[in-house]
Amino acid sequence: MADKSLRFDEIGYWSEVKLDIIKKYAQAYSTIMAKQKSIEAHVYIDGFAGAGRHISKATGEAVAGSPLNAMKIQPPFTELHFIDLEGSRAAELRRIAAGDRRVRVHKGDCNGILLNEVFPRCRWSDFRRALCLLDPYGLAVDWDVLRTAGEMKSVEIFYNFMIMDANMNVFMHDAGKVAAAQARRMDAVWGDDSWRSAAYTRTEGLFGEIERKATNEDVAEAFRLRLEHVAGFAYVPQAMPMRNSKGAVVYYLYFASQNQTGAKIVEDIFDTYRARGVA
Ligand SMILES: C[S@@+](CC[C@H](N)C(=O)[O-])C[C@H]1O[C@@H](n2cnc3c(N)ncnc32)[C@H](O)[C@@H]1O
Hints:
The protein has helices at 13-35, 66-72, 87-97, 110-118, 143-152, 163-169, 180-190, 195-199, 216-229, 260-275, and strands at residues 10-11, 41-46, 53-56, 62-64, 79-84, 103-107, 128-134, 155-161, 200-205, 208-213, 240-243, 249-256. The protein is of the alpha/beta class. It has a single domain, classed as 3-Layer(aba) Sandwich (Rossmann fold), CATH 3.40.50. Strands 6-5-2-7-8-12-11 form a seven-stranded mixed sheet, sandwiched between helices. A three-stranded mixed sheet has the order 1-3-4. A two-stranded antiparallel sheet has the order 9-10. A hairpin with a 2-residue loop joins strand 9 and strand 10 (208-213). It starts with 9 loop residues before the first strand and ends with a helix. The mean pLDDT is 95. The structure holds S-adenosylmethionine (SAM). S-adenosylmethionine is lined by residues 19, 46, 48-50, 65-66, 83-86, 89, 109-110, 135-137, 140.
């Protein structure tokens, strides 16, 4: 019987662009990995998997979500992990994936599940590799997850960094007015409190130091550099700004990997969308 609490998200143009980007790269990734005889398994991980499908705002029709797209990729992923916090969504994912023995659905907070259950199945030394999508609604990914993926060397990520959540709730115009609970949330996402120097610029004025909120681009670049220099990903292309219908940046989509070829493929995909004038 259908679960009455199950809700599908209505998604706009930008979410469809995101789904396309992930699908194109997952296709290329699985093709490359399937050819590598030394690789035991290539794994797809969806940390914030959703209900499996959405409703398009443009057409009112059903749109396959990222887990469904990943299940259909040929050559196939060896193993797929779908995680969602909502019981009704995890149940729907189980229903969709019933009979597909490659799929494991986990209900709960992906931060703990990734570190304790899923990443240990993707170790470099076990000749296993993974592509992990982290696509939250807000600032919900702990830095530990990104750092661990970077250290493992076997896990590549797409990461949606919700700058709109940061702008609305953390980066107040007056740096002194950031609420303590919001600052703690940002520390967990950034890995420490160095976001404060990325989010605000300081210049000498006539009457002392002037502090201003940094631009979105500056914050995005600071985070990109952290993925490279602190998490240890060798290749992190410039993040793609993803917008709402009014043109405001809602989040930055990052790709981070140890693999130059992977980064080049993603840059080409990002460029295709930039050339269409979407970014
Ligand atoms: C943006 S949607 C995912 C959409 C999906 N990636 C797609 O493109 O089809 C975010 C999902 O994350 C789930 N979620 C929120 N917090 C979570 C957490 N801490 N761990 C796992 N899932 C979470 C929500 O229930 C929601 O289904």
